[in-house]
Amino acid sequence: MSMLQPASIDGVLRRLETDLSEIVSLLNAGGAAKPSRSRVRTVTVATFRGDPLFPRIERVVAAILEKDKVVRPVDVLMGMQLLSSSDLEEWRRGRVPYLERVVKCNLTRLSRLLRILRFHVHKKLVPSGTAYVRHGSGPRQRLRFTKSGDAKLETAYSTHFVWPGKGPFHPPAPRRPEVTDREGAP
C-alpha cells in the first residue's frame, strides 16, 4: 500500500473542498448535485486574448473586415466553419426552428465565442441591433437563435458590429522593435 505524500494530500483536500462547495452551491440553487470536472474560466476583457478561441476569431474578423464593413456573428460562425451556408439558408427560410440546432459546437463554447467576439471588436466597431426575419413567402416572423429564447443570448447573436469610418478597415500594423543609434555603434 502506497503512502500519499503531504503535498498530494493537500491537493486532494483542496479538490474535495472545492467539490463540496460546488455541491452546496448547487443544492442552494435548487440544481442537481453534480460537480463539474473541467474548470472553464470566465472570459473577461482582461483575459479574452489568452483564450484558445481568440486567434481563430481574430483571423476571421480580419478577413470579414477586408471585404465588408460589418461583422455579423453568423459570418464569424461560417468563417470558423461551425455553420454551413446551407444550414444558415435553411434557418433563414424558417425550416430550422433555431440557429443553435445547426451550429457544429457545444453551447458553452458558442457562448464563449460570442463573448470573445464582443470583447475583440468593442474598441474598433460600433454595435448595432438587427432584427432577423424569415425569408421567403408567407408571414414575416422573427427568427430565433436559441432554443430557450433567452433575451440576452438572442441579442448577442443578432448584434452586428459596424466599422464607423468612411474608408475600408485597415488592421493595425504589427509593431517593430525600435532601433536606437547605439545598437549599431561599436
Keywords:
186 residues, mainly alpha, three-stranded antiparallel β-sheet, 3 strands, 43% helix
Report on the architecture of this protein.
This protein has 7 helices and 3 strands. 43% of the residues lie in helices and 5% in strands. The chain is mainly alpha-helical and 186 residues long. The longest helix is centred in the first third of the chain and has 24 residues, at 6-29. The protein has a 3-stranded antiparallel β-sheet with strand order 1-3-2. Helix 2 crosses helix 5 (107-121). The protein has a domain at 48-162. The chain has helices at residues 6-29, 54-67, 73-79, 85-92, 107-121, 151-158, 181-184, and strands at 70-71, 126-129, 159-162.
Detail the topology: elements first, then pairings.
Layout: H1 6-29, H2 54-67, E1 70-71, H3 73-79, H4 85-92, H5 107-121, E2 126-129, H6 151-158, E3 159-162, H7 181-184
Antiparallel strand pairs: 1-3, 2-3
Helix pairs in contact: 2-5
Mean pLDDT level: 82
Strand content: 5-15%
Distance between the termini: 66 Å
The coarse overall form would be: globular
Largest sheet composition? 3 strands, antiparallel
* Order of strands in the sheet with most strands: 1-3-2
Weakly predicted, low-confidence segments: none
Structural class: mainly alpha
* SSE arrangement, N to C: HHEHHHEHEH
